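User: My collaborator and I are trying to settle a disagreement about how two of our proteins should look. Neither of us wants to argue from intuition anymore, so we agreed to look at predicted structures for both before our next call. Could you fold the first one, then the second, and keep them clearly separated?

Assistant: That sounds like a sensible way to settle it. I'll keep them separate. The first protein:
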Amino acid sequence: MTRRITLAAVAAVALAFGACSREAPAPTSATTPAPATTGGSQEAVSQAGDATVRASAVQTSTLPPQVAAEYGIVRDDRSVLLLVAIRRGPAGQETAVPARITATVTDLRGRRQPVTMREMRTKGPGTEVLLDYIGTVDVSPPDTLRFELTVALDGGATSTMQFARDFFPR
């Protein structure tokens, strides 16, 4: 299975839950203000210099079993996958951009959790190697989680994103 199909599967799951999302205050950036948008999906988008940062969050129980296995995570209603992709270049010709990501999540009770992010490198079509960042966080549905991410590119550009997502028992 190619990485593009895997990301397409995660995106399809995220889109399916788009009606359940709500937006937190717009993000700020240390270098350039970059509003996060969702366009009705589970994806938040911002800019870090000339790179586009895309973040999504879904309950791991909604992932196809092969995607969960590839990511090395357990499918569970009480676990949320945070997926962050940083890309540079025109659509269809984008390249992955390495970054340092710091993420925290706050639930409705005010409980704050750090999210340990790790690199996920997989082979894409041809010889292309794709790089994404993933982490998981616990949730007790029903709940709303507020995600706060700081993305720092090697070249010095940074972006801070904030977005919220609702999660329900399944």
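The second protein, kept apart from the first:
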Amino acid sequence: MRISTVTMFEQSMTSMNRQQANLMKVSQQIASGRRVVNPSDDPQAASQAVRVAQSLALTEQYGDARVGARNALSQEESVLNSVSDSITQAKTLILQAVNGTLSDADRDSAASELRGIYETLLGQANATDGNGRYLFGGYQDDSPPFVKNGGGVDYVGDTQVRQQRIDASRLMPVSDNGEDIFQSVHASAGYLARADGGNSGSVTFTGPDVVDVDDADFGGAFTIEFADDGTDITYSVNGGAPQPYQEGEPIRFGGLSMTLEGTPADGDSIAVDKAADMDPDLFATFERALAVLENPASTDAEKAARTNTLNNTLRELDNGLDNVLTVRASVGSRLNELDVVDTVADNRTLNYEQTMSDLVDLDYVEAISEYVLRQVGLQAAQQSFMGIKGLSLFDRM
């Protein structure tokens, strides 16, 4: 069979083009540092690399979300720390003001300082994150969550909490609403007692203290009512049988104990209930304390009301402080969780990057060896073409 000159030239050119294409492919791999430059280089590895790249990008997005969550929680923790300091300062002032030896001027001075703390606390409750978003308004973070009205402070924010997805399987609260912080108490808060504002006697109370949680009536609400028939003073609990009143003697009911001092008037009463059911509100607590400190007490009934209010304020501030510290502990635990999730995400990122490297990155030793081999192949094809080009009968004539 005869082979035409054209065929020999075409085969030689095809061989040289193929060798040159292989050399260019290896050159491109070395220049880019990737084994898979085009999907056609390794379709299976290319498709797996796309999935790994998507997972890596998603991990980075969650990382950015955690940065935002950490900033929000750190700001909240800082504000709650200031709130705790404010409550502690208020307790110190109330302890001083409850001293019966202070003059009205001294109490007025304490009231002035206490009002300053009250205003500071209100400012802390309406704190922002620096971008105009209110920390404790829930999803309604574009306006102050606490506003003053004629009789106190109202919470007008959202009762929900803002959440942010920090990982594929974790949706984390990145804030707490103001109602849960400033108008709630911890579940462990005990009982409170409040004397009726209309009491005309001089009775004061200490407690209530829990003495028997197994009592059948423990956990309920109680009303202590006093009666004076002109001869004997009695008291009854929730309309029960009258009992003789003895000043300074503890009385027990529903697993609780209270000690009463002074002389109650006929019709006076004291309400006792769980702290969570007595409308807990730090701002209202401050307002009740300010009301009795700013208004001088002249009668025994007014002095008794002041003593009861201030003693009760101390218990309410304790409950409020415990609640704030509980929320702050929750914020701290979430910050710790972010650190743990960051560590897990870093390890996951390293795994993704290693997988991506195994799929598409270039082995330079192998690539350079192949590059040299392709060079030799191209040179051989060129030399072969030169030799074939000289095979002509006209050269022998």
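Some points you might bring to the call about the second protein. DSSP finds seven helices and twelve strands in the chain. Residues 226 and 235 are 4 Å apart (CA to CA).
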